[in-house]
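Side project, low priority. Logging it here so it doesn't get lost.
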Amino acid sequence: MLIPSAAACFLSTPYWEVAFVAAFDYAPYQTVSQTFRILFGDSWQYLWPVVVISILQTFGASLIMSVIDRHFRTGRLSLRDPFRQINNSIFPLAVGVAVMSLLSVLWRFLLFGLVTLVQVVSDAMSLPTGAALAAISILAVGLFILHVLILTPMLFWAPIMFIYGYRFRDAAASSFKLIAGKKLFIGLLLPVLLCAGIQLLVGFLQVHFAIACAVNFLIFMITNAYVTVYVMLTFYGISELDRRDLKPYHNAPIPSAVRKPDGADQQSKKQKSASALPDGKPDEHKQKSQTVKTAKKDNAPPSRVKRAKITYKAPTKSETSARRNARLKDADHGSSVAENSDAGREAETDNGV
């Protein structure tokens, strides 16, 4: 915001909607042309300063919004690649600035008409200059407060468009619903009203041009920075968006880089293999073929696990002879059964003949 504020402090005066009262020089009864000249100044004849200031402020506010949005989403505050960050929000913000600038010009014409009306009425009532100047000051402050109230939802068009991706019409409708029932304009009104009061005081004191430019620079910079930061903070708050720059997120690991504890991979593989079987039961064949005994202690290292020893006992001579005799008896019994069956078949054939 340094460059836009430095350029604007030489080309215009901030909060001229209120500070113009000091330009009457305690003489509120002016002609219509003089009042028009006081309210609009040289910007009516030379339009390029207004355009230059609007463009510079658009670029500055776009950079701040993009940096804050990235800081809230990632928790990292960085100004690397500023042109790329400006590109994220420059077009939504340019639309909002163009609409608000057009509204400000129309509002200035409304202020000019009402001030002229107050001058005519005060002159007709023969009011003293102090009373007429006080009436103009009250009118200027009242219209300034109403102007801030109207501009408040417009300030949220840009973050709604470049964060949510809404179109201009949808963003304009959503902004009114977003701030409905919330007195957000108070957070904007009090600081800007204080800055307007300082600017009006400087105008009445008629300080040196260099001092006036320094005050203009500070007012421009404070206002632009405060309004932009306030809008982003309020938008994230009322939208209930997650912010990784807060303390609960400090040193929080990224979900994709979370390190699993020791043994978690093996346990997950076991759970997957068990869930793959019916009823979640482990394979019985694997249980039977498992030869490793469980260790007495759960935390014992694998090298201390003892394996079961398989022993083979040779049969004695008596056992081998008994098995041999049993096989011979089975063979004799089978041969006798076969002979009996053959004899029975021969007898049946003889009887049949």
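Brief comment: Residues 2-247 form one domain.
Revisit when time allows.
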